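Revision sheet: structure tokens.
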Amino acid sequence: MNNGAPNQGLRGIIDIISKFKDDTVNLRHEVFDLRAKNEIPGTDYDIYISSGGPGSPLESENEPWENSFFSLLDDLQFYNQQHDLKKYVFLICHSFQLACRKYQLGTVAPRKSNAFGIFPVTLTEHGLQDAVFSGLPNPFYAVDSRDWQVIDPDNTIVSKPGSDILAIEKERKHVDLERCIMSIRFSNEIVGTQFHPEADAAGMRGYLLNDERKESIIATHGEQKYEDMLRSLEDPQRILLTQTAVLPNFLTTAAEAYKKA
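Predicted:
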């Protein structure tokens, strides 16, 4: 979903897949460039991870690549309805926002200001019970980078079997704004996060130390926020813990299903 833009997220996803160890599952990956080349996989894969990306999640409506993406989600859901051995899907940031719009699970809207940094994320009661967040405290810390957000969840739709809000934005008592949705389980096999569970300390440090990005972050968020982000990277209970939990938990769930089969 990066549309040709430099993307640390894709590297992080591939790194997690490469490190995932399971004695009974031979895990191999392939990358598809959806937005730039309209490359789309079929339903013959077992696990799908769709990355974040730049730009508005609203302006792509009816674009060929978005239609391809939505058709794939429909095909995978139909497949899962027809088969006992399911296909598993994880949606990150931009992909998550698109899915929320597709399924009408809230309002996708621009933020008042850009959110960028390492922030606490609060698990809901459903999130505390969900295997994808196993091993994380509440709240836990994650990399957040967005100009858009999902708010005003439709509780009637979200409460359908298999669909739950798993996490929400940190509480900001001094700001009179609704807390956005940070994670939704769309079905038993499809889950997504607004934050970046693939982000790692080394990649974030390299990103932050780039001179051009450093100046941009300080100009937008201030020098103290920039220094806080660098210090936060040293804490093993923050994004390192999230990186080694969320996507590996998702992969483990899929691997266990295939082992049982």
